[in-house]
Specification:
The protein has about 675 residues and is mainly alpha-helical. The protein has 32 helices and two strands. A two-stranded antiparallel ribbon has the order 1-2. Strand 1 and strand 2 form a beta hairpin. The chain is elongated. It comes from Urochloa decumbens.
């Protein structure tokens, strides 16, 4: 109490304007008040050269703004918080301003005592009793800070790997509850003691090293520059950098860096922002993006980097609009379009199957005098191959090979499919053979496509040659390849070779499917050897191989051509029992019933075919029309003739002449 009374007497002698006159330490005020008062105005420090200064005191002092000490800040905050209640209890009649000033005087004295700074002539002196009270509060604050630090360290070491491992072991052996909690805190405390022990050893070693190796004397500061005589000579790695040519090198480096270092686009604001919003809201199929682009250009005055940023935003909103805007920008001078811009647009059009759009970009590219490069040509090959334009695809592919570029597997596969789609399996096979010269191994799918194309055209020998080439390249045959070869023999009518290949397929360990059996039966049908075909099918049934839908359809086609109506109807019932009713059944039945002049049954099948006319092919239309003409159903033949044309098929000359002749003989169609 005596200490606080002496502090009160000291505070009464403080002038009212002391807080405004003194310049309090900003570090202390941060803990007493929430907002520190603004510092008094000071004259700017005089400019001092860092090279020509002669005394260290002339340089700006680094002690004017000391680095913050977190430990000291926390100590002062806790000290003020702990000392304020005692002052408030001792002087309940004093307002907050007086108490704050008394706290500031005490804290100033504590700061000077801790840091060893000079308190100055205007500092207040504290009595011994007041110092005793201050030390008592300081000791309690330090003890609280020490306890908090220990708790923080324990919380840290409770989650270290060693404590976690021991905790898991304790849980595994059955320790639970409060005992496990006590063990965790015990292990964390032991870990903390171990760390503090080694930390003290490090401190002792650092002190010993500092004692044995004192710090070197500071390097004397430069007080003046030597007088220069002649030209400056600067050498780096043996090169005279004072030569004027290095200035030119630096300029060229800056120019080259401008091309490689990406520039930042200018921010879009004001009218340019509104013009961009109108551009993004345009419908690419109906609207015109040129007016908002012109307005955006006038306001933004863009460079290439600004145009590219705009294109990215347009692409994120609408890809079709992006294609239209990018096409317009190809003619813009500030955009500085290059070959990559053209190739990107061509690639996007190709992926979207827009062949016309890609050709427009290609035409603009050639108008600018830019020849397509390898990447553009590769894109064109894939696009034209997918679109079925063999001439343009071949032109681009030949350009790639003439430039010495080695085509990859995907490029060759596109060309092979393009040749096959145009009915040229021979050229596809030649390209397949040339892959050996390019050190590219063909895949099984490539060989399969070529063999299938040969088989569909009945070209058995080239198909077998491609099959042997596939075996020589280390690729084994699959059941699909055997089936295609058997079907090829069936198209040309060679039952002996078809049966031999069928047996070879079974000896190779492949189970024949319904398509391979149907191929052999088709070969017998070409030779009109019905008895041999039936005997062969009976032998397969004895071995457990029963014909499926495809084989029965071949037999139904054969029986309908032979006008074996009863046998064909029995076979139709067998096919329906298998759970399927292909449209080919009614094509064969309509042809058979029309030729045999069974009008009611023929009209029944024709009605079903009329409902499924979109599934009919050109050859099926012609077979129906031919059967109707042979049976004398000229009106129905004319009806299906018109139906064939409406479905997009062009009738053959024989069918067209037959329909017109039948109408003339009957005096025109009936009304």
């Amino acid at each position: 109490m005596r200490a606080l009374v002496s502090l009160s007497r000291l505070a009464r002698r403080i002038p009212a304007s002391l807080a405004a006159v003194r310049s309090p330490a900003p570090l202390l005020l941060r803990h007493i008040h929430t907002d520190a008062p603004p510092p008094p105005p000071q004259d700017p420090p005089p400019f001092v050269s860092r090279i020509l200064e002669t005394e260290p005191s002339l340089a700006p002092s680094a002690e004017a703004e000391p680095e913050p000490d977190p430990f000291l800040d926390e100590f002062l905050a806790r000290f003020v918080a702990a000392f304020r209640p005692e002052l408030a209890a001792a002087f309940p009649d004093y307002d907050r301003a007086v108490l704050d000033e008394m706290l500031r005087l005490v804290a100033d004295a504590v700061m000077c005592r801790i840091t060893g700074a000079d308190p100055g002539p205007d500092a207040a002196e504290l009595s011994d009793d007041l110092w005793a009270a201050v030390w008592k509060v300081s000791a309690s604050v330090q003890e609280a800070m020490r306890r908090d630090q220990v708790r923080a360290d324990l919380r840290h070491y409770l989650h270290c790997d060693e404590v976690k491992e021991m905790t898991r072991f304790a849980v595994d052996v059955g320790i639970r509850g409060s005992m496990l909690r006590e063990l965790r805190f015990k292990w964390a405390r032991e870990k903390l003691d171990e760390v503090e022990f080694y930390r003290s050893l490090d401190d002792m070693r650092a002190k010993a090293e500092a004692t044995s190796n004192p710090a070197p004397a500071p390097v004397p500061r430069l007080t003046a520059l030597p007088k220069r005589k002649g030209e400056v000579k600067f050498t780096m790695y043996g090169l005279d950098m004072s030569d004027p040519k290095w200035a030119e090198v630096a300029e060229r480096e800056a120019e080259a860096e401008a091309h490689f270092v990406p520039q930042e686009a200018k921010p879009v604001e004001g009218k340019a922002k509104k013009a961009e919003e109108r551009l993004l809201s345009i419908d690419p199929r109906r609207g015109d993006p040129v007016p908002p682009m012109e307005e955006w250009k006038e306001e933004q005055r863009p460079k290439r980097v600004d145009w590219m940023a705009l294109l990215e935003r347009v692409k994120a909103r609408n890809v079709e609009l992006y294609l239209k805007v990018a096409e317009i920008l190809l003619a813009e001078e500030s955009f500085e379009a290059n070959i990559r811009d053209y190739s990107k647009l061509i690639d996007l059009h190709a992926k979207a199957n827009h062949v016309e759009g890609a050709e427009i970009i290609l035409g603009k590219m050639k108008e600018k005098g830019i020849a397509p490069d390898i990447l553009t040509s590769i894109t064109l090959v894939h696009m034209y191959s997918k679109a079925g334009n063999l001439d343009r695809a071949k032109e681009a592919f030949d350009f790639i090979r003439s430039e010495g570029f080695k085509p990859d597997l995907k490029l060759i596969s596109s060309m092979i499919k393009c040749y096959i789609s145009h009915g040229k399996p021979g050229e596809a096979d030649d390209l397949l053979k040339s892959m050996k010269d390019m050190d590219i191994k063909a895949t099984r799918e490539m060989y399969t496509d070529v063999i299938r194309a040969y088989a569909q055209q009945g070209m058995v020998n080239p198909a077998q040659s491609a099959l042997r080439a596939m075996h020589m390249s280390g690729i084994e045959s699959t059941p699909e390849l055997f089936t295609m070869s058997i079907e090829a023999y069936g198209r040309i009518g060679e039952p002996e070779n078809a049966c031999g290949l069928f047996q070879h397929m079974r000896r190779s360990g492949h189970e024949p499917d319904d398509s391979s059996i149907a191929g052999v039966v088709a070969a017998f049908m070409k030779k009109n050897q019905l008895d041999q075909a039936l005997l062969w099918l009976l032998s397969l049934e004895k071995e457990g191989l029963k014909p499926g839908v495809k084989t029965n359809l071949v037999l139904l086609d054969w029986l309908s051509m032979l006008q074996l109506v009863l046998e064909a109807e029995q076979l139709v019932q067998q096919i329906k029992q298998l759970g399927e009713e292909p449209i080919e059944i009614h094509v064969f039945l309509a042809d058979m019933y029309a030729k045999s002049r069974q009008e009611e049954k023929a009209r029944r099948s024709l009605k079903i075919l009329e409902e499924k006319k979109k599934l009919l092919k050109a050859d099926q239309f012609e077979r129906i029309i031919r059967g109707l003409l042979d049976g004398g159903f000229s009106d129905e033949a004319n009806k299906y003739y018109k139906m064939m044309k409406s479905c997009g098929f062009e009738p053959s000359e024989t069918i067209e002449v037959g329909v017109k002749a039948s109408l003339r003989m009957r005096g025109g169609p009936r009304r």
